[in-house]
Amino acid sequence: MQIVTLTTDLGLSDYYVASLKGQLLSACPEISLVDISHEIQPFNIAQAAFYINNVLSDFPEGTIHFLGVDALPKISIGSPESNLYPAVMKLNGHYFVGCDNGIFSLIKNYRNAEEIIRLDDFSAKFALRFPTRYIYVPTIKRLVDGGKMADLGEPIESVKKVFTAQPTLENNLIKGAVIHIDKYGNVIVNITEKLFNEVGNGNPFTIYFKSAQYFIETISKNYHEVPTAEKLALFNESGFLEIAINKGVKGNGGGAGSLLGLSVGDLVRMEFHPKGSKDNIESLFPSE
User: Fold this and answer.
1) Domain 168-284 has CATH 2.40.30.90
2) What is the pTM assigned to this prediction?
3) Which H or E element spans position 14?
4) Is 263 exposed, middle or buried (0-12, 13-18, 19+ CB in 10 A)?
5) Closest Cα to residue 74, out of 87, 91, 93?
6) Would you list the domain boundaries of the chain?
7) Residue 171: phi, psi to the nearest 5?
8) Pairing of strands 3-8, 32-37
9) Cβ neighbours, 10 Å, residue 169
10) How far is residue 32's CA from residue 54's CA, in Å, rounded to a whole number?
11) Segment 172-177 mean pLDDT
12) Residue 258: what pLDDT?
């Protein structure tokens, strides 16, 4: 059975998601629909890509991913340089269908794409006004039916590129940023375990947040290494630094985001104390 995943900013309070699913099931009755999320912040392609990148390895080859975030094409004869075309990208056996608004460039390893096609059939009367119904759903149907990528439109060499915030490195210091806060209030930071190991080289460290009164000096292996309601840091399944409060959710004291005053975009500093440094030596002789 063909799997089609859905990642959109449509929300769940309106009928839009039901309409999308109805269109897809009417066109392709045998598909299996999987919701990645419909609660992406409106037009936030970076958040959408974060969600998608964290689940891609869980889906089999051949899966079709609909990227329905800021997906309205923009076609202007007078200023073609600003055009945003609908497109399909094949990468590692997966198919991504959406608008070439930069989101394709945020998919992990997008430079290894096997094929990219710009969709150029706008013959339906309301294609550019209602692209999901008249462009994206028909494209997904053709893929489900085994259609060739080359028959969908014009091959292109690259996609529109956008850039997200990356950690910065200074002497014995990594400066990262909060990139996501989940429903539990856990704070995800764009510092990876790989970067931590490369820069830290096994040295002691301190993680500082925007408020100087909060800091962490150890990496836990799981949430239960600290008492309930205590803060901790660990590297999650995706390899990103996560700041959490053990069992700290709304109604039970609050999560790390609210208790530590952290929001998406806030700075998180990881300072290392190499052997022989002043900070390291002082830590061996704490003041009474």
Assistant:
1) yes
2) 0.86
3) none
4) exposed
5) 87
6) 3-155, 168-284
7) -60, 110
8) parallel
9) 12
10) 20
11) 95
12) 87
